[in-house]
Amino acid sequence: MRNFQNNFITNTATIRWLKILMAFEKNHHCSTVGLAKTSGSTTRTIMTDITNLKEHFGDCLMIDSSHKGYFFSIKNSSDYLTKKRALIADEILFHIIESIFHHDLLTSSEWAEKYHISESTVLRYLRKVQPIFSSYRLEIQTNPVSFVGEEINIRKFFHDFYYESEITGHTIFPPIAIQNITASAFSKCYQLNQHTCSFGEFNYYLYITFERHCIGQPISLPKPVKAMFENYNDFKLFSEINESIEEQYQRDLPYEEMLYLFLLVKTRRSISNLTIEHTFCKEYNHWPELKKLAALFVNDCIPDSPDPARDQLLIESFFTVAKIKQLLSPLLNHMISDAIQFVEDSYPDDFQLFKTYLFTQPIARDTWDSETLNHLSTSLTMYISSIRSLYWQEKKNIAFLFEGPYYLCQLLKCKSVRYLRSFRTFYFPDSNELSQAYLEKNQIDLIVTNYTEYITEYAQNIDYLLLKTFPDDYDWEALEAKLNTNFNS
């Protein structure tokens, strides 16, 4: 459970427990005073909470106490996640959001009756989360309880709540029919080569689009967007997925819904195929000033780039995507609070540098509003870090000089070759490729994921490592430990 979702929890004890668990997940050794500060409670309450947490989670975790504080470890990740999700099973706001998504609407008084609480309490809960809805430019009405606002922003909220946030017991998953449509779309080569939208995210985009359209909540795109993109051949090819939609549901999506879906998918770009990004910029960048902005950014913010032309192309692609999203809705460039916090904690120097630059660069200020620039600073920081990780790392040539007993030197040489050349083979399958057959065919020994559903589905007989949604240093250390497990065998 992350901060974004914590806002929708009404039980104060549950909020404290989740904050304590989050602190433990970040640092396996915590002091009583530190936990009290984190959870906004007293040290006496912390001692009671720790006792209750041990009782709730049982053998799947261990919390040992000492004069230095508490030591935390997870003994069974799958059971731990199941019991953690159970903490919010009866949370009313999660049920209300689900009812809005499915259009099973109730009034505030009906929700009060269903939960055996007063209507004033229901209204107080809704007022508590109104600031979150306001950040999506939405209001909450109470008769019945539903969202009021632009449809594109409502869909953005559902995408963030159900896909970009951590999985909970209330997470809605796309049905098999939607997954079949996505699988059909991904089987076409033009789909795979022109974007990097994952199978899972495509599922959610399609599911939210289809559900909202079917309940009579259509999308309305700005006229400039329709005029600019409706005649692209890519869009015409993409629209062929309507055949699969009609096959599954005996109805299809109208042109405007399809164009909206196409642009969501099209703006998921890759940094690994420069040829495709060059084509994307050439065809989709209708704003010459963005090419100039990319050149200025490379020159001023990453002057040590080993290949400025390459990095300028990739950053032009980033700005083109951000401009298209701005035309659809500025909120499409916004990140959930957890992502912002992750970047501020992990890349503080780059984040501040890029943020300051965007706010002082006239082209950026004329293109995006100040609130959006804050969010673009976050996504741009992760984007530049990705470019550095993929392209900036120099290849190392290593000389091993072993001396000593002959068989020892032979052993060290063979260990080195195995460890550095053949010990690790990495696979990055998309979820549409993933199956037991895939795992068996590629003889997968270890699954590493930050998506909890894959553990229960695929890791029954295979070793696994579950990272946090936003991995921290402990996760990477745990991964290195996993990879090194058999080094001395």
UniProtKB/TrEMBL annotation:
N-terminal signal peptide: none
Residue ranges of every copy of the Mga helix-turn-helix domain listed in the record: 86-162
Domain of life: Bacteria
Entries under InterPro entries matching the protein: BglG_antiterminators (IPR050661), Mga_HTH (IPR007737), PRD_sf (IPR036634), WH-like_DNA-bd_sf (IPR036388)
Keywords for the protein's UniProt record, in alphabetical order: Transcription, Transcription regulation
Name the UniProt record assigns to this protein: Mga helix-turn-helix domain-containing protein
Organism: Enterococcus innesii
